[in-house]
Each structure stands twice: as C-alpha cells, then as structure tokens.
Amino acid sequence: MVQEIVDVARCFAGRELTEGEGKVLSLLCAAALDSWQARLRPEVTPEQVRDLSEYTDSVKKPAGIRHVLVGGTFALKDGAATGSRTGTVLKKV
After folding, report:
1. Distance, CA of 27 to CA of 33 (rounded, Å)
2. Which of 44, 54, 87, 91 has the fewest C-beta atoms lying within 10 Å of its C-beta?
C-alpha cells in the first residue's frame, strides 16, 4: 500500500492536484493508515501478561508474550527466541 501511495505522489510531483486527484490520494492515505493501525493493535491485554520470575529463579519467561520485535525483526516468535542480534545495548553514562 505504501508503494502505491509513493507511486501516485510521484505522478503529481511538481504540479497542483485537481480536486479529484486530491480525493484519490486522500483515500489511499486513509486506507494505509487503517492498515497500519490494524497491524499495531495488541493481541494481548495487560491482564494477560504475568511475570513468573521469582527471587530464586529470576530467568523464568513471562506468560502472555508470544512475539517481540526489535528494530523490525523478530527476537521472539511464537514464544521461542529467534537468535536475532538486532538492537543496541543501552549503557548507563
């Protein structure tokens, strides 16, 4: 969807849009926004996420988290680590 919007915008580059062209571009942008918002909706509510770690066993995984994206790449997919090494370590300064 994004590529289609970019292609349409390039067609109109350097000139004024007619009213009809503006409406078409507006509809494309609205459809893209709806699509992005649908992808960003959480599948899990905060009530479903639980910290299962204990003082004596601090490495237990939390319940309710199936996927984690870091820099647009899965670090955890379907509850299993992917081995991805994306992201940056944050250091205290």
Report:
1. 10
2. 91
SS3 26: helix
Distance CA 9, CA 35 (A): 19
Place of tokens 């919007």: 5
- Copy the structure tokens of residue 27: 């509809």
- For 28-73, the DSSP string reads HHHHHHHHHHHHHS-SS-GGG-B----SS-TTPPPBT---EEETTE
Beta bridge partners of 50: 63
Q: At what angle do helices 19-40 and 2-11 cross, to 10 degrees?
A: 160
Q: Taking all residues of the chain, what is their mean pLDDT, rounded to a whole number? A: 76
Share of the chain above pLDDT 90, in %: 1
- The amino acid at 93: V
For residues 46 and 40, give the distance between their C-alpha atoms in angstroms, rounded to a whole number.
15
C-alpha–C-alpha distance, residues 1 and 36, integer Å: 10
